[in-house]
Design goal:
The protein is an alpha+beta fold. About 60% of the residues lie in helices and about 10% in strands. It has six helices and four strands. The chain starts with a strand and ends with a helix.
């Protein structure tokens, strides 16, 4: 059985849990605490980041975007394909996934998670209200962009649900 190493408040891990659920893929969840050094996780992913998927054949796949594309490539084609369409549409889906996984996370998600959760539970420093204010200001800019995208279509990247929508949902739900 597949094993997904994740943390509940990791937006990338939540993204993968959504992808697995949409595709109907059964997996065993294994919680990892990001601020605790775990040699077992480091042996799977030297970066020590989640998500990490251990496939049934023992293959180790790390990183939200990489795991999502691996699932799309290896699971049977069905009505629940989340990376669909012609090359230009797939490129737009990938661009938006990258937007949330990198830019949104860097400017909004990671600073808020660090200040509001990790510092509090790990005891790794004082909470910075200025970091929180900047992240919330950045959030408004991102929300305006999401509004603009959703005004042009029923879904962020086009005519049906895609990886981009799940990435957006995961990152927003963590907030």
């Amino acid at each position: 059985m597949r094993v997904l190493h994740h943390y509940q408040l990791s937006a990338s891990a939540r993204f993968i849990r959504l992808v697995l659920a949409e595709r109907g893929v059964v997996f065993l969840p294994k919680i990892e605490i990001p601020w605790e050094r775990n040699d077992a996780l480091l042996s799977l992913n030297p970066a020590g980041d989640v998500p990490v998927l251990v496939a049934e054949n023992g293959l180790i796949v790390s990183g939200g975007t990489v795991i999502a594309e691996y699932i799309e490539e290896t699971e049977s084609a069905s009505a629940t394909n989340l990376l669909w369409g012609e090359a230009s549409i797939r490129a737009e889906i990938r661009r938006l996934v990258q937007w949330f996984e990198v830019k949104f996370n860097r400017e909004v998600g990671a600073p808020l998670l660090s200040e509001r959760v990790i510092k509090r539970f790990s005891g790794s420093g004082d909470i910075s209200s200025s970091v929180i204010r900047v992240a919330l200001s950045n959030l408004q800019i991102h929300m305006d962009y999401i509004d603009w995208l959703s005004e042009n279509s029923n879904w962020l990247a086009g005519k049906k649900l895609s990886l981009a929508d799940l990435a957006a949902a995961a990152h927003l739900s963590v907030l």
